[in-house]
From TrEMBL:
Residues in RNA polymerase sigma-70 domain copies: 87-100
The organism of origin for this protein: Nostoc flagelliforme CCNUN1
GO biological process annotation, one example: DNA-templated transcription initiation
CDD domains on file: Sigma70_r4 (cd06171)
Molecular function terms, GO-annotated: DNA binding; sigma factor activity
Lineage: Bacteria, Bacillati, Cyanobacteriota, Cyanophyceae, Nostocales
The protein, known as: SIG3.3.2, RNA polymerase sigma-B factor
Keyword tags: DNA-binding, Sigma factor, Transcription, Transcription regulation
Keyword Flavoprotein: no
Amino acid sequence: MRSPTTGGYAIAAEFKSEELIVDLLNKRGAMPTTTTNELKHEIWQLLREYQQCRSENVRNKLVKLNFGLVRKEAHYWTNQCHETYDDLLQVGCLGLIRAIEKFELSKGHAFSSYALPYIRGEIQHYLRDKGVTVRIPRKWLALQQQAIGVSRSWREKHNRQPTDSELATALEISPNEWQEIKLAWVNRAPLSLDVPIQDGEEGSTCLGELVPDPHYRSFQLAQEDQLRLQQALVQLEQRTRDVLECVFLQDLTQKQVAEHLGISVVTVSRRVKKGLDLMKELMGVAED
């Protein structure tokens, strides 16, 4: 079996779980017949046991019980790229194992909700590292373009940017679908480190110079990092947040952002730099 790698490591090498994954691939149609509540209880008990003993056997049981989460994500991404289903299953298992390793019972989260971002993020990292461009449904492309017009009209009427909830309502979609659209737009292709983010009288620099840590050298982030990004964004002042969302989430040029927000291109550049500096601090990105 071909073992896909991401960042130079394979699932078998990193977690010594090749036998487990082969077994899962061979038996992926099988799922426990226990009721949902019994299954949740069993998973919870195994998580508690794993945190106490860190047993590989217990961890593998948890992977088997939660393998349906990996299948769901692998199936979704198979339709978005040209990678094989089995390869995406293997990569998704790596994300599931990471979730098991990091899960904290004391925080009271549902494990499935906690694990999905890790699984999805691992697959996205893998696709990005391979240079795969993810296809975006036509409906989402149309909605993203429509959102730009809605934002412009909203600002003219209310003198501010609409919230995500207001945008979703205007587009007649759920807030969750709008978040998925924004995430898909951000992750559609790697962002060039040479993209200029400052110009005019202050000279020029690029994203690669402002984000020196290799782990954050792209804003095409995994779902786990997207959550951290959103948490950091809400802590910024509204004007700076508006600019960053237009540049990185709506993919507008600095000139378009300036026209959209009614400010100068130089002001856009300054706010992007200021925002990125603040984001690095809020997200805990180490300086070289």
